[in-house]
Amino acid sequence: MCTTTYSNQSNGSGIGILIIIALIISIFIGGFIYFQNSDHATEKHGTDAELVRNSCNNGGIKEIWQNPKTNRIAKICKIEDNLFGVQVLDENDEIEITAFIKNKMRYIDQIRNYLSNQGYVIK
């Protein structure tokens, strides 16, 4: 009579597979979020658009406005002293429409007037 024994010991490869799957998912999600940014903003406003995005994403939002006709959201972001940017998003505050810096407008009141003239109201 012959007896065969099998070992059911794990060598940790299950955790390795989970890590690889998590990495793939995070890359996919990161790519999806990246593509939510506006091509228009980057094409028209170049690095200014990226500066505004970075400021808005890192706590630089000073005020949030909304256009009652389009329901779009406008965020006023402080880039640095006397330099403000505006990020415009869809009505769900998820997809960027555009992002730009108003270089001639050095004070937040000027940005407020600009947004008000565009039909936005403070949210």
Helix content: 40-55%
Number of domains: 1
Total beta strands: 5
List the helices and strands in order: HHHEEEEHE
Give the overall shape, derived from the CA principal axes: elongated
- How many strands, which pairing sense, and closed or not: the largest β-sheet? 5 strands, antiparallel
Strand order of the largest sheet: 4-3-2-1-5
Q: Helix count, per DSSP?
A: 4
- Structural class from helices and strands? alpha+beta
Mean pLDDT rating:
81
* N→C terminal distance: 82 Å
Radius of gyration equals 24 Å
Taken as a percent bin, the fraction of beta residues is: 15-25%
Q: In terms of per-residue confidence, which ranges show pLDDT below 50 for 5 or more consecutive residues?
A: 31-35
Characterize the structure shown.
With 123 residues, this protein is of the alpha+beta class. It has one domain (32-122). 41% of the residues lie in helices and 24% in strands. The chain is built from four helices and five strands. The protein has helices spanning 13-34, 39-45, 47-57, 108-117, and strands spanning 61-66, 73-80, 83-89, 96-101, 121-122. It has a five-stranded antiparallel beta sheet with strand order 4-3-2-1-5, with helices on both faces. A hairpin with a 6-residue loop joins strand 3 (83-89) and strand 4. The radius of gyration is 24 Å and the shape is elongated. The termini are far apart. Mean pLDDT is 81; it is low at 31-35.
